[in-house]
């Protein structure tokens, strides 16, 4: 199956408040898993139908304030077991502050780079030419 993603997804632990915008009177609190420039992945105890429009609010430690907006459910996977009744879902941004998403993704990339540098920081010797 060919890859349909156009952007990398970055891990982002947080919470999602989500509710159906049309038809389904569903509301759920969910767990944020990842984010990209075009949407986010989450786990929810409530199943939202693919192609349904939703209102959401994302909160995470890396956010100064929540990101809220409208999205479209693009992917829904059934729970893998009865002991873990979470639906894995992908939501595409439809009406969201793109500047806030871009800012968050840049912060996540900077943090990843900083973490990588701190793990690979080795002692070095200054070269003094004679």
What does this protein look like?
The chain has 130 residues and is an alpha+beta fold. The chain has one domain: predicted glycosyltransferase like domains (Thrombin, subunit H, Beta Barrel). Helix content is 18%, strand content 42%. The chain contains one helix and six strands; from the N terminus they run E-E-E-E-E-E-H. The protein has one helix at 98-120; strands at 10-20, 27-35, 39-44, 53-60, 67-77, 87-96. Strands 1-2-3-6-5-4 form a six-stranded antiparallel beta barrel. The protein is elongated and about 70 Å long. 17% of the residues are buried. The mean pLDDT is 84.
Secondary-structure map:
Layout (H helix, E strand, L loop, with lengths): L9 E11 L6 E9 L3 E6 L8 E8 L6 E11 L9 E10 L1 H23 L10
Antiparallel strand pairs: 1-2, 1-4, 2-3, 3-6, 4-5, 5-6
Q: Short summary of the structure?
A:
The protein is of the alpha+beta class and 130 residues long.
